[in-house]
Fold this sequence. Notes:
Elements (H helix, E strand, L loop, with lengths): L2 H10 L3 H14 L14 E5 L2 E5 L8 E8 L11 E4 L4 E4 L19 H11 L8 H7 L14 H9 L1 H10 L8 E7 L6 E6 L4 E6 L3 E4 L2 E3 L1
Antiparallel strand pairs: 1-2, 1-3, 3-4, 4-10, 5-9, 6-7, 7-8
Helix pairs in contact: 1-2
Amino acid sequence: MGLLEKMSDLVRGYGYDRVAQVLDEIKLAKKTDADVKLPEVGDFAFVLGKEILFAKSPMAYEKCIGVVGYVNPDVNAVAGQRALILALQEQTLLWVNDPDTNNFPHLGATSDSGAYNTNKMMEYYMDTAQDFPAMNYCLTYEAHGVKDWFFPSLAEMEKFHRNFWQINSALLKIDGELLKGVYWTSTEEKTRGSFAMKYTVNSGKKSPCSKKFYFFVRAVLAV
């Protein structure tokens, strides 16, 4: 369908959802070369139609889903390994909601990939994801229809620490919640199932901690 036919949809009264979809398609058809370049840390990520675009301005498009917190230096990286997007919001949550945390089994969530760790947690408690409040928050997070977010690993949080000031500068421009303080990571302590790694994002300090405590949790999306 051409742009003129799409515009005619607007005057036929297809309803709000259809109008919004048509406008997104028109904007996508007009995107510039600057819109489709490789992202940089601190760029804003937007959803437009079915695509994710990046821009320097938080006002470039209407549907901002997050801020770029890390970019893979390998320019030939495949989709899903090119960059990490941080959600604009966060919550303070438990790692696990279990009264017998001290005897909690090890899940094998020790990878540098938060997506892998999230999947390991899902395998263990497929029907009771609510027992993992931090993981469940990230797994069910949604921004303007974009899903597939995950609970970041220790290694990924370390990447955000290295880009701390650029990330927070961008979050400040769009009224997002700034990175601060201590965060849970999806990385378990290697030998004890009752402990996972916590990470102070502004200082870079890391240490194992009982899963029964509350810390900040931020969802991440790989693109």
